[in-house]
């Protein structure tokens, strides 16, 4: 591991380039790229940024990533021995509002002749404000299904959207506000596909795994995994109500495994007790064992009110799990109804119960859907396929 200080005129914070051997081979015919990654914690957006960055390295791009020192992403990059820029942030300011960021970015752009800057969050445009004479294309990857605020729509001319519905909403809003719509391409999020493709369980036995890793004596019931932060829009309460109906009205007990943290945890724990299903609900918290949790489950489900795409669905598909999710959301990219899994009417607990019953009671159907899901994701959403779409977009905008 080597560190090289970045010389920044009147720099506010220390910035370093961290590198490892071997150095990746660079194709000089491809544009140099910088990716901004302001989040400190690891989440789906950061997973996309990491996998997106690795795909560019593999394809020979002169590519760089800028992130806060000590962040979860830095730990991942050190673990995988991938080069990056890091800045020492102040705890007083949010990471996309750090003083002096424009000087840091200007120095990186000048040093490497950067032609494209990727923003993974719309607020990262604040890191680029008031930068002078910067002849670069700025591309936002929009992970949310909602349209941007007008002030941000005016700042981004080019954009990837992981949800087709978001593209429609942005174009409608631009038309209503009479502002020029950005050039947008629909693109699935990059993710760590190898984690699923190369997955091998540490413990083959389901009961032994959950006992050892989480201290849970898991009953021998059909098991559903939900990998999602415990926040309101993820709509866990809909699944809780479905579990209540399955357990108490249909006498079909199940295990519901929740991987994730969030401000709704206390509410959900109280709801589980209120519905008298708390012994069927298992809060696993944040875990790096999410792939193994899904492997030891029978069904991968999401009940989100408005999901842009759902990286965890692609992860589950690559370990051949049947998928379950709501209509009118971005999960329809992965869940092809009655082929890779089942779609239930968004927000309809009775339809959710019906679809759960169908999957729970039919192991052969689950196996068929799991195999189909694997083929669908492998053929359409792996990095080798996605990077070609990205490269074509570069050619269009350069």
Task: Note down, in words, how this protein is organized.
By secondary structure, the chain is an alpha/beta fold. The chain has two domains: 202 residues, 3-Layer(aba) Sandwich (Rossmann fold); 188 residues, 3-Layer(aba) Sandwich (Rossmann fold). It is 37% helix and 18% strand. It is built from 14 helices and 15 strands. Strands 1-2-5-4-3-6-7-8-9 form a nine-stranded mixed sheet. Helix 8 crosses helix 12. The protein is globular, with a radius of gyration of 22 Å.
- Low-pLDDT ranges: none
CATH topology-level fold name of the largest domain: Rossmann fold
Class derived from helix and strand content: alpha/beta
The CATH architecture classification of the largest domain is 3-Layer(aba) Sandwich
What kind of oligomer do you see?
single chain
CA-based shape: globular
Spatial order of strands in the largest sheet:
1-2-5-4-3-6-7-8-9
Number of E-state strands: 15
CATH superfamily of the largest domain, called what? Glycogen Phosphorylase B
Mean pLDDT: 94
Rg to the nearest angstrom? Answer: 22 Å
Alpha-carbon distance between the two ends: 34 Å
The major sheet is characterized as: 9 strands, mixed
Number of alpha- plus pi-helical segments: 14
Number of domains: 2
Beta percentage is: 15-25%
Helix content: 25-40%
């Amino acid at each position: 591991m080597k560190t090289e200080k970045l010389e920044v005129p009147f720099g506010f914070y220390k910035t370093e380039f961290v590198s490892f051997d071997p150095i990746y081979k660079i194709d000089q015919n491809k544009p140099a790229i910088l990716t901004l990654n302001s989040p400190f914690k690891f989440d789906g957006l950061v997973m996309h940024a990491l996998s997106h960055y690795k795909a560019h390295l593999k394809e020979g791009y002169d590519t760089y990533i800028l992130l806060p020192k000590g962040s979860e992403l830095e730990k991942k990059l050190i673990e995988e021995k991938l080069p990056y820029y890091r800045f020492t942030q102040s705890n007083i300011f949010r990471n996309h509002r750090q003083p002096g960021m424009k000087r840091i970015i200007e120095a990186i752009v000048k040093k490497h002749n950067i032609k494209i800057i990727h923003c993974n969050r719309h607020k990262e445009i604040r890191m680029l404000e008031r930068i002078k004479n910067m002849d670069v294309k700025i591309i936002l990857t929009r992970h949310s299904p909602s349209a941007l605020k007008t002030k941000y729509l005016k700042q981004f001319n080019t954009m990837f959207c992981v949800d087709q519905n978001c593209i429609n909403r942005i174009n409608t809003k631009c038309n209503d506000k009479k502002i020029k719509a950005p050039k947008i391409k629909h693109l699935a999020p990059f993710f760590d596909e190898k984690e699923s493709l190369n997955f091998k369980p540490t413990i083959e036995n389901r009961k032994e795994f959950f006992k050892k890793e989480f201290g849970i004596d898991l009953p021998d019931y059909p098991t559903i995994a939900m990998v999602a932060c415990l926040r309101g829009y993820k709509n866990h309460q809909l699944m809780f109500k479905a579990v209540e109906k399955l357990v108490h009205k249909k006498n079909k007990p199940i295990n519901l495994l929740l991987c994730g943290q969030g401000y709704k945890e206390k509410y959900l724990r109280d709801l589980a007790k209120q519905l008298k299903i708390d012994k069927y609900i298992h809060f696993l918290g944040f875990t790096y064992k999410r792939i193994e949790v899904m492997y030891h489950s029978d069904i991968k489900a999401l009940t989100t009110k408005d999901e842009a795409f759902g990286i965890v669905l692609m992860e589950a598909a690559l370990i051949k799990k049947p998928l379950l999710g709501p209509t009118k959301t971005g999960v329809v990219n992965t869940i092809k109804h009655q082929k890779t899994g089942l779609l239930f009417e968004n927000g309809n607990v009775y339809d959710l119960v019906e679809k759960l019953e169908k999957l729970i009671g039919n192991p052969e159907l689950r196996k068929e859907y799991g195999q189909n899901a694997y083929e669908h994701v492998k053929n359409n959403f792996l990095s080798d396929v996605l990077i070609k779409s990205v490269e074509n977009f570069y050619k269009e905008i350069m």
